[in-house]
Amino acid sequence: MHSVSISASASASAIASGGARSKAAAGRRPGEIRFCGLRGDALACGSLRASHAAAATRRAVLRAAASANGAAGSGDGFDYDLVIIGAGVGGHGAALHAVEEGLKTAIIEGDVVGGTCVNRGCVPSKALLAVSGRMRELHDEHHMKSLGLQVSSTGYDRQAVADHANNLASKIRSNLTNSMKAMGVDILTGFGKIVGKQKVRYGKVGFPEKEITAKNIIIATGSVPFVPKGIEIDGKTVFTSDHALKLESVPDWIAIVGSGYIGLEFSDVYTALGSEVTFVEALDQLMPGFDPAIAKLAQRVLINPRKIDYHTGVFASKITPAKDGKPVLIELIDAKTKEHKETLEVDAALIATGRAPFTNGLGLENINVVTQRGFIPVDERMQVTDADGNVVPNLFCIGDANGKLMLAHAASAQGISVVEQISGRDHILNHLSIPAACFTHPEISMVGLTEPQAREKADNEGFEVSVVKTSFKANTKALAENEGDGIAKMIYRPDTGEILGVHILGLHAADLIHEASNAIALGTRLQELKLAVHAHPTLSEVLDELFKAAKVNSGVSHSVNEPVAA
Fold this sequence. Notes:
Elements: H1 12-16, H2 52-68, E1 80-85, H3 89-100, E2 105-109, H4 115-120, H5 122-139, H6 141-146, H7 158-183, E3 186-189, E4 191-196, E5 199-203, E6 210-219, E7 223-225, E8 238-240, H8 241-244, E9 253-257, H9 261-272, E10 276-281, H10 292-303, E11 308-312, E12 314-320, E13 328-334, E14 340-346, E15 348-351, E16 355-357, E17 383-385, E18 391-397, H11 408-422, E19 436-438, E20 443-448, H12 451-461, E21 466-471, H13 476-480, E22 487-492, E23 499-506, H14 509-522, H15 526-529, H16 541-549
Parallel strand pairs: 1-2, 1-6, 2-3, 6-18, 8-15, 9-10, 9-15, 10-11
Antiparallel strand pairs: 4-5, 5-6, 7-16, 12-13, 13-14, 17-18, 19-20, 20-23, 21-22, 22-23
Helix pairs in contact: 3-7, 3-11, 5-7, 5-9
């Protein structure tokens, strides 16, 4: 894990240009640097306890901030202390934290509140995956009989399943909107554009635009599905995840182009609902971004037993939608030689080749900022840098638009980190502490480095790496559920007890990963984790056994590490 040394005397005003501080924050010193990836002040890498009096004071400040946030002007000539362009999960997290810090805040949204995650991503997909999980369990006759259960027949209503996903998205979208309104965030409707230093123009097509000023601006415009050249999208038979989440049909045979998180999750949904799936992957193996041990087990558990076949090392050079009674045609070429391999004929094709930043039309040319492959360049503090490599004062970019880590919760963490900075407290987010999860059945989760990444880092920096694994087959709770398929794997430094990465495949892996994630964020060493107590019988004991299995060199200090930035 990268260790970054930063002088605590670095002026926060040089970063934030005098960002306002609330009374609630008065107890912390300007320039005080915090490295953890957690939001709450209770876990702010300093004191872990706040007095009841301090808590009461904070609640009073929040109430005052909510009522005062609508007052005209920020008090120093700007319309707002902070304007956020984009009301997705990242923008929402930043906005709420800004109001908590006493900043007059506005958020601009040209589509709908919630962004990709809530409306076209992680939220509705989890609704579909909840259905697929139950269908898969009910269809598993051996599993049901082993629990003493008998199921006569199973089926599903496609439209009802689709409605479940849509209703969940609507509910979460409403919750996000109401939470911002309740806190006093001004929600401005339209597409935002930077027109100059600390100036933003917004408005709807066909309506007059309005211009506002802000002491600080955050760009949080997210991303859109990436569609390679040669692929024709019709939204019906050839589509992206945006269309797939509507579940307008369940094709008999669907090709999924890309075997990352998105493709893997949709393969879980479609096979549970009765489809046959063919993966098309450009690299030489499926799930190339996963730790090799996890990818190997995932193929045995999530691919081989299901109606899934695959083509690796090939590009889909051309995809033609179904029409006039003809099927979807997918022309495959060798990824290295570019020679034609074969043509697939399927009922539908889902394009799951990743996402591209949504950064066009933001007026970046007005401030001499040039995107890199569409991403807005930022430094470790999410400060936007211009074409000459200089920091653009008072301008930040978070989330998918900067490309550092394209996850909704990463965007939120980045937004909160930025607000910390403009409130007078320097803060650097440790991206290696941010977990990721794939909500298949069983789930996959990970945080930190894969084993190949860790070994490369060790070779470059001259330290030793060790690896330990534990199995869900040894866990009482997993066995009680008849869900023993799964492993947990940890990569660590035996000389220091530092965790470099943890990877899990198994029941509720997405929930289990956070103990490791928080340990990395807080700099907790294995020496301390070995002494932690876990309730029995619980799945958390999978991590308990993992920590206890680690061999840390004798004589290594038991004190807690200082959290690190990366």
